[in-house]
Amino acid sequence: MVAVIEGLLSKEQVQTIAKRLFGAQFVDGTLSGGPLGEAIKKNTQVSPQSPEYRELSQLVLGAMRQNDQVAVAALPKRILSPIFASYVEGNRYGEHVDAALMGPYPGMRTDLSITIFLNDPGAYDGGELVLKTAFGEQVYKRAAGDAVLYPTHYVHRVNPVTRGRRLAIVTWIESMIRDPAQREIIEDLAEAMDKLVRDAADGEIIRRVEKARLNLLRMWADT
Question: Which of 118, 86, 83 is nearest to 103 (CA)?
Answer without folding.
Answer: 83
